[in-house]
Design brief:
five-stranded parallel β-sheet, three-stranded antiparallel β-sheet, 8 strands, 14% strand
Length: 274
Amino acid sequence: MYQLLDGFNLLLYGLGSKRVLLDQFRNMMLQDCSHIVINGFFPSITLKNILNSITEDILSHTGSFKSPIDQIDFVQETLKESGEDVFLLVNNIDGQMLRGRKVQSALSSLAQIPQFHLVASIDHINAPLIWDQTKASCFNWLWYDVTNFEPYTEETSYENSLLVQHSSALALSSLKNVLRSLTPNARGIFDIIVNYQLENKDSSLYNGLSFQDLYQKCREAFLVNSDLTLRAQLTEFRDHKLLKSRKGIDGIEFLSVPIENSTLVEFIDQQQQE
């Protein structure tokens, strides 16, 4: 943490999956900090997803931007005014969808913001070649060899799906893989949000499930014992891109799952069969 707060960014390399290591770092060091987790091995990840996660989920901005540059400038100005530290954890910053010049330029610009801190991992042997001297200087990496020989189970589960990255089958597979790592109570909370969303899918006035209504439903189902417990679980959902939240005009927080309803229906059907 000292190195991050001192202006450096951390890059993990070496043989073996670093996903669990990054998750342990998040749980141990960032529970009280604003942070976002990005999985670079997801075939559907885009620069827009990353920037929107920062401006919407962390900075609570609901407007739109003309370009990624405007969005990054907004992040810089907002963090400069607030003094808040934001941490971005990127599994596989050398992933297939993140290797492009535009994405790496945007990430290097974020890395230059004093209040913005980046911890990332690489796995491809030629990964350093995606950065020229200018970008490498912007990232200001401290390199850590974390060789652990852990299998790349989740990272490679998407490698044959790039040609069908927008298909519901891939979205369903991604959803199931993430939920397997969650506790039974967490899956129960997620099921409540999904079922409520599907019950109201034909309503043009549906904004999402309010936090208070979700808390009441979870209490009745003995899934949580306090609103703090629920909020901690919702943060984990957001980290895995399973949840979006927005505030209504009256300040009420509404929650929704950013996945097509047809995919959610198939997910619930498979859950019931299992």
